[in-house]
Design goal:
- Strands 2-1-5-4-3 form a five-stranded antiparallel sheet, with helices on both faces.
- The protein is built from nine helices and five strands.
- About 55% of the residues lie in helices and about 15% in strands.
- A hairpin with a 5-residue loop joins strand 3 and strand 4 (about 230-240).
- The chain is an alpha+beta fold and about 280 residues long.
Length: about 280
C-alpha cells in the first residue's frame, strides 16, 4: 500500500468565521498603529502645529503613551504572525495523530519551526510503520488461512476464558456443522457452547481446564450439534499459549470429525454383542 503524496488540503484549516475575525483584528491593529505613528511623527517634526511654545512639554506624556501603544501593537502583530503558522501546524499534527489509520497517509510539513517539523516527521514515520504492520498482518492472515484450509480438520484459536470464545475458525467448520465460522467467532450469532452438545459441556470443559492448569496438551472427545439437528462426534486436540508470567492467553488446536470412527466402533461392538448371544 503506497503512501499518498502530501496534500495541502490534508491539513485542517480554521473555520471561516475565525479567519475573518483574526483578519479584522490584524487590519484594525494595523490602522491603529498607522494613526499612532502619524501622530507621533507630527509631534516630533511639527511641534508648532500644537500651539504655543510651551505646549510640547505638556504633551510629552501623550506622546510617550502613543509611542508605547504603537510598539505594543506592533509587537502583538509580530508575535501573532510568528505563532500563527506554528499553531496551525500543531493543530494539523494533533488532528493527524488522532486519525492515523494505517493507510500510510503523510502529514504535510509546512512549518519552519524545527521542533514541529521533527514532530511531523515522527508522525509520518509512525503512520508508515502502522501501514507496514497492517500489510504484514494481512499477509500473515492470508498465509494462515491458506495453511489451515489444507489441514484435515477445523483449526481454531479461542480465548482462555472458560467459555471458549472463538477468535479464529477455519472455513471447514461450516462443512462440519453447517454454521459459518463468522457466526461463531466473537459470539456474533452463536457461541461455541451453543453448538456443543449440552450433555458434553460439563465433561469437556473441566478436562481442558485441567490440562491448561498443568500446562500440557489436551485431547477431548465431545459432540457438536449441526444446524440441521444432527450430531457430530469430534476429537479436539490442542494446547494453551501462555505469556511470560505463565498466564494462559488463548487456546489453539484442531477439531477433527470423529463421527465415522465412532459409528464404526459402535457397529463393531453391536456385532460382537450379537455374535456373543448366538452361542447361547
Amino acid at each position: 500500500m503506497n503512501a499518498e503524496p502530501p496534500r495541502d488540503e490534508d491539513a485542517p484549516a480554521l473555520p471561516a468565521s475565525r479567519e475573518g475575525i483574526a483578519l479584522g483584528l490584524v487590519l484594525g491593529a494595523a490602522v491603529a498603529v498607522a494613526i499612532a505613528l502619524a501622530v507621533a511623527l507630527a509631534f516630533r517634526l511639527q511641534p508648532a502645529l500644537l500651539g504655543a511654545q510651551g505646549v510640547w512639554p505638556a504633551n510629552e506624556r501623550l506622546l510617550t503613551a502613543l509611542t508605547a501603544t504603537a510598539i505594543g501593537v506592533l509587537a502583538w502583530i509580530g508575535i501573532w504572525l510568528t505563532l500563527r503558522p506554528a499553531l496551525s501546524a500543531l493543530r494539523a499534527a494533533a488532528a493527524f495523530a488522532l486519525n492515523i489509520d494505517g493507510s500510510g497517509r503523510a502529514l504535510p510539513v509546512a512549518t519552519r519551526v524545527r521542533e514541529i517539523r521533527a514532530l511531523s516527521h515522527a508522525l509520518n514515520a509512525a503512520s508508515q510503520r502502522l501501514a507496514d504492520q497492517q500489510r504484514r498482518a494481512e499477509t500473515t492472515e492470508g498465509e494462515l488461512r491458506a495453511l489451515t484450509s489444507n489441514l484435515p480438520g477445523v483449526v481454531y484459536r479461542c480465548r482462555a476464558d472458560g467459555s471458549w470464545t472463538m477468535e479464529h475458525l477455519s472455513p471447514d467448520f461450516e462443512r462440519l456443522t453447517g454454521f459459518a465460522a463468522d457466526e461463531i467467532v466473537g459470539d456474533r450469532v452463536f457461541s461455541y457452547r451453543d453448538v456443543m452438545h449440552p450433555e458434553d459441556i460439563d465433561k469437556a470443559l473441566p478436562l481442558v481446564s485441567s490440562a491448561v492448569a498443568q500446562r500440557r496438551p489436551f485431547a477431548a472427545q465431545y459432540r457438536l450439534r449441526a444446524r440441521d439437528g444432527s450430531t457430530r462426534w469430534v476429537l479436539d486436540k490442542g494446547q494453551a499459549v501462555f505469556d511470560e508470567h505463565g498466564t494462559p492467553l488463548y487456546l489453539t488446536g484442531v477439531i477433527i470429525n470423529d463421527t465415522a470412527r465412532r459409528i464404526a466402533r459402535a457397529s463393531c461392538a453391536w456385532r460382537r454383542f450379537l455374535l456373543g448371544r448366538s452361542f447361547y
